[in-house]
Amino acid sequence: MQGSSFSKIIRRFREVAGALPDGRKGKNTRYAMADIALSAFSVFFTQCPSFLSFQRAMEEARGRNNARSLFEVEKIPCDNHIRQTLDPVEPFHLFSLFDELHAGFAQAGLLEAMRAVKNTRLIALDATWYYSSQSENIHCQHCSRIEHKSGECTHYHSAITPVIVSPSHKEVVPLRPEFIIPQDGHAKQDCEIAAAKRWLAGQGERYATGNDTLLGDDLYAHQPFCRQVLLHGYHYLFTCKPASHTHLFGWVEALEEGRGRQGIKQRIKSKSNQWEHWHYGWANDVPLTEGENALRVNWLEVIITDKEGRELYHNSFITDWKVGEDNVVGLVSAARARWKIENENNNVLKTKGYHLEHNFGHGEKHLSSLLATMNLLAFGLHTLLEITDGSYRLLRAKIGARRTFFDHIRTLTTYLDFENWSHLMDFMMRGLKIGPYAAQKN
């Protein structure tokens, strides 16, 4: 499938972008909406803020450029025109592209391979910022705000960025996001839990397979949200801290060891080849809160100590899965996979070349969230290429760090033009003498 995933997604992106709402009139419509949207996307895909300026210079000098050959951009608009034209476009217009990526992962077999304990699919929920400013001149009606004791105010945008995760896979599969914005008719600003409920109502059915488990931090171990999860046909497995769930932990502590409260121990060698002791505990059918209508949940924990008995890790969780000796290890492993939404998704988007928190443009309406959506789509396409494009995967393995790989892409596309994506991948393999060129001699 070398090159096919990239070409297919770009063609589909052009179709979707061509149908974006366009409020321009007269001479202002020189550039097609597809060209405008794909120009913006190319910057995020190549991780090169100057990509378009380099391609304009190449077009002027040679009559051809990589924006056209790689991203099907017929005419490259200026940056200001891109921002002004895209500002009124709501991000949901691009959400079907997440479905294209999802279908690609499914076709490659990754989604089924990622199923965890009890053959369940794990979907991790977490919120992350994608824009912030302390300038009183740069904010909009969709901004959230934090008022500091100093009198300053931070305006910011954030979103829930759900991903499919697995304890046994480093990849995460991005799903349609839910943006956290102030809601009409609400006295308080929107919050993460409210956005998560909207995501469940709007996207839950789309991603439900009949055996799916939501993962989340302690914020999600909230009785009304847990009930919503069950109503939408999902399981839940959320981190649960003693400080925020005193009634639950008081109840668990009162249970008799070996009867209402069970446990097992394992001796495991760590990645550093050191022996560790893993202590698992669980209790089924305990009340999450006080009161007659309290949701009954199943509690589990893991405590990891070294050979001297020093505690290395301790965490606890709640779930609707009945916990027993046959699945407690798998459930803890699944619950701990939640960190991948931070390390393999949000942190990658912020520190590995995607610059999610960089202020690419705020606009007055939807520009910031639309550009963030494109950034998420670029990350998703990169992940899909690692799975389905043998040349891309081979080059990533040879070059190493993601940032270095895109440094190579940025340099090559600045000075050379390529007929298509496969041509670019082939040129890089030939230069590094890998893949089909590994046996070539100087």
Describe the oligomeric state of these chains in a short phrase: single chain
Order of helices and strands: HHHHHHHEEEEEEEHEHEHEEEEHHHHHH
The backbone outline, from C-alpha atoms, is globular
Structural class: alpha+beta
How many β-strand runs? 13
Would you give an account of this structure?
With 442 residues, the chain is of the alpha+beta class. 42% of the residues lie in helices and 20% in strands. The protein is built from 16 helices and 13 strands. The strands form two sheets. Strands 6-5-1-8-9-13-12-11-10 form a nine-stranded mixed beta sheet, with helices on both faces. Strands 2, 3, 4 and 7 form a four-stranded antiparallel beta sheet that branches. A hairpin with a 2-residue loop joins β5 and β6. The longest helix is centred in the last third of the chain and has 22 residues, at 367-388. The chain is globular and about 80 Å long. The model is unreliable at 184-188 (pLDDT under 50).
Question: What features would you highlight for this structure?
Answer:
4-stranded antiparallel sheet; alpha+beta; 442 residues
Secondary structure: elements and pairs:
Blueprint: H1 4-18, H2 33-46, H3 51-62, H4 66-71, H5 79-86, H6 96-107, H7 110-113, E1 121-124, E2 127-133, E3 144-147, E4 153-160, E5 163-166, E6 169-174, E7 178-180, H8 192-207, E8 212-216, H9 223-231, E9 235-239, H10 246-254, E10 262-269, E11 275-287, E12 296-306, E13 311-319, H11 328-336, H12 340-351, H13 367-388, H14 390-399, H15 402-415, H16 421-432
Parallel strand pairs: 1-8, 8-9
Antiparallel strand pairs: 1-5, 2-4, 3-4, 4-7, 5-6, 9-13, 10-11, 11-12, 12-13
